[in-house]
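Attaching the record inline, Q. Sequence:
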Amino acid sequence: MNKLKFGMWLLLVGCCISVSVGAQEKPPLFEEVERAFREKEPRWKIERLDVKGEIDPLVQNIVFRAGRQQALVRIVIWKNVKDARDTFLATLIAKGNMNRRTKRHRLPGFGDESYIWTHSGSDAWPTIDFRRGGVNVTVFAPSTAIAKRFARHILGQINTNQY
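Structure, as predicted:
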């Protein structure tokens, strides 16, 4: 009898969790970024999409694939610009301390604060980190050109959605 009660309880909890997860709505920025990529980058398909957080911060990770190439985009929406700024700074410090093989360069024109991390003498696999208002973004792509293009798509949606 105890196994039956436990099984029923597990089923009920599972249903409640699936209803609450299904009821979560994505912020308009996440929807618009996905739409912009479908329209502007038809060759790049969304391979995996992951939305985390319910209140603060809201996080979306997107893995794109075009043939054998992959790219990663991470968007973090903070309610408070100070929190976005503080975590952006902390990320820069951590990346600088962890990886001595890449060099950080300012990247003008990509939000309020923006940097690109590159390997010496190589265009391959840069990381762009930028902040616009309360939104922090990371783009990791096969080349600098692709990373900048992806970052511009996202920045355009942040500007449009006034974050």
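Residues 1-23 have pLDDT under 50 and may be disordered. The first strand starts at residue 45 and ends at 52.

More tomorrow.
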